[in-house]
């Protein structure tokens, strides 16, 4: 059978940086060619970056993307790389297409270009457009209407893009009828916990359906709230894992494949007649029909699976590192309260950017405990981050003398003064302010607008409180195993959570214990269960109604919260989007006609229960 050396380049690219991304693609193509690759694949929308969101609707950007892919083909030839076949994702348009779904001729396509010998020799486009979770592709693109098949050294390679792999029938079914030797899929598949095993199972299933080996190349790196983990892989037709790239790092995965020849099949073999207006036709392109001379194959490498805590932690570090780097922030600043949330955020920042680029500010008020200040100072000593103490007590007194606030208003004033202090230092020195709240707090509205909710990025935004504790313990254990000092003081992990905004305050004054709260929130937020289902699962009815009310009343706060890396099935913002003005409440049937009532204090406003900003 003909041999083919395939290279899957999982790369970290930047949305909108057409020239920089093209340069990066060229560099990784050179790496693959140096290793003898015949066919080189890059991820979905690699050239413009992914997701481009409304940039896809900007005609100037679409035109620039189309020009950039042609220029990239020419540059590859000029650099002596033109003999390789390179498949790269880009933004295109079909100027001859009929209007589709109300979109005009020339509407954008999520496309792939095949580059060879200085030219774009073939093009294909994504057929299935996802419109769920973090995806809004019906907003931007029209579906492609053909399955591209390229003949490379006597092997027919079918091309598909991301969602085309996850849907039944569609391109995979058409590919099987076309009898290719390899199915190559370009992907921009965001990370979420435990997705790598789901991904592998899907790839195995589709390889069996296509009746040929399947190669899957994915993006890596952070883009706003999304993190891409790479995890590119190749499986045989019977589902055997042949090779797999590591997660969260750029890599050129090279694998040698013995593939079936085309056996004289004509390149213009007719496609089955379309069964509907959305059916796919097959579009074949011959690049080279002559098989390569036999050569000793390379052994495929299989990167080990990351343990759960390491996987999640690496996603958080990657998300913060790329957000800061791609938005030109050299350093970050955050409040250090001595609690577990700010401690874990600080350690993530140190691992992402280096401790010399992390500024931790302790801002004690008259209610701050000595152990909180001591724990914050000890964290700074262990990590090497830059630490400073700014007392807010005089500022609070000045505001109180002017406004005479009490209760929640006084508590939230402390958080807002801390937020203002951090934003002022950010303006002065160019730091990115990190919000330190976790998903549990954000769910129930325990954050103060313009206080602990102030910031440019929130590393723990999608991390429930119980997972925060697991990650803190894991990070300390990992340090100990490597002969290093655990970065987080033990007291920050074990002490009862408290915002310290009034004497003796504890989170449990207003909330159930976090393991119980997170379990309940998982039912409501992640699984979208209603009140009756959650009560039937064993949760007390009064607790369910209180927690669900807190969640519903806090939607307006979540809309104003900074972005943060998605790691769960349903992150606030991109995944879970509900109206702010909304009278539906998950109440007992006899109460469903009642008008929603905000919590005491300012509408929906509560004091932060755990280190908002110290």
Structure description:
Helix content is 35%, strand content 17%. The protein has 614 residues and is of the alpha/beta class. The protein has 2 domains: 3-291, Carbon-nitrogen hydrolase (Nitrilase/N-carbamoyl-D-aminoacid amidohydrolase, 4-Layer Sandwich); 309-591, Rossmann fold, CATH 3.40.50. A 7-stranded mixed beta sheet has the order 13-12-9-8-7-6-15. A hairpin with a 2-residue loop joins strand 6 and strand 7. Helix 1 runs parallel beside helix 2 (59-78). It is elongated.
Q: How many H/I helices? A: 18
- The CATH level-2 architecture of the largest domain is identified as 4-Layer Sandwich
Q: Report the helical percentage.
A: 25-40%
Can you tell me the number of structural domains? Answer: 2
Q: What is the general shape?
A: elongated
- What's the CATH C level of the largest domain? Alpha Beta
The average pLDDT is 88
Strand order, sheet with most strands: 13-12-9-8-7-6-15
> Biggest β-sheet: count, sense, barrel?
7 strands, mixed
Poorly predicted ranges: 266-277, 599-614
Rg over CA atoms, rounded to whole Å, is 27 Å
Q: What percentage of amino acids are in beta strands?
A: 15-25%
Number of strands: 19
CATH superfamily of the largest domain: Carbon-nitrogen hydrolase
Distance between the termini: 66 Å
Q: What do we call the CATH topology of the largest domain?
A: Nitrilase/N-carbamoyl-D-aminoacid amidohydrolase
Please identify the structural class as seen in this structure: alpha/beta
